[in-house]
Write a structure and sequence with these properties.
16% strand, Ribosomal Protein L15, Chain: K, domain 2, four-stranded mixed β-sheet, 11 helices, globular, 2 domains, alpha/beta, 12 strands
Length: 332
Amino acid sequence: MKAVKYLTSMGELKRKDHSLIFRNERGHTYIPIEGVKEIYCLNEVSINSKLFELLSKAGITVHFFNYYQQYTGTFYPKEGLVSGRLTIKQAEAFHQVRMPIAKAIVGGIANNIYYVLYHYYTHGSKELKPFLNWLRKEVPLLLEKDINIPQILFIEGTIWKRFYDSFQYFLPESFLFNKRVRRPPDNPMNALISFGNSLLYAKTISQIYRTHLNQSISFLHEPSEGRFSLSLDLCEVFKPIIVFRTIFENINNRKLQVGKHFDKELNYCLLNDSGKKIFIQSFEERMSKAFMHTKLKRKVTYHTAIKLDAYKLIKFIMEGEVFRPFDDKEKQ
């Protein structure tokens, strides 16, 4: 199985014969090109056009992040999986059946947040009961109504806000926060959420790239220039069970600590190098761990689950099959 390579320090990524070499002030590291499928540049990394040719031939995707650990862009090889017919149908679906897809995504977010919080409810956080009841009973009723996209987005925003408010019942005080701040994150929890969401967004881009879907035509988020809005759509339901489970487990097991793993400046807070390495290792382990899929009757990883949601969307667009995004109860 091909690996994912993370470059966490500043340096230069170059072509060396028919392989890769990463150079920085500490020396150089050879990266055998045959064993890599994705590279994540989490710091300032210089790359030249010669290297892009090699990366393209080898089918390697490269994701770039800025100083604030937020996703900025992706290089991926020339698109081989392009379907004009599907792109036309996807655009038609945006105009004709956008609502059921958007509602399904928000319903999927609510379901997966429920499963994440139910664990803490059964382990003593009884204060979560009203929110759990609301997720299970009220949200489906709200989504059944004849509502528009702004109203669907309002429901989604309310779900996330109440989710953030619930952290006080099972996380240490040092990781609590008043509100979600993104650019740049201003405290340890915002830093973890931004970093985790950016990683998941990049993973989703890679998985959609392996299908015939057009990344720019989305359904919950507005299609826009300058970002892959379909990836924003499909990664949403996975945030609770991938990003937030990774965050909660690292905090509650004291693998990540405010005093040791974050750099705090006047108006922002970021994971330091050791914190990034801890989070990345946990994130990759979660993404790659195989679980039995109850419907498919075979083992899959979250990498596969994301790609399967893309295929479900294709089935809906092309054949009208009901789109139901990944639900954590499908895992055993």
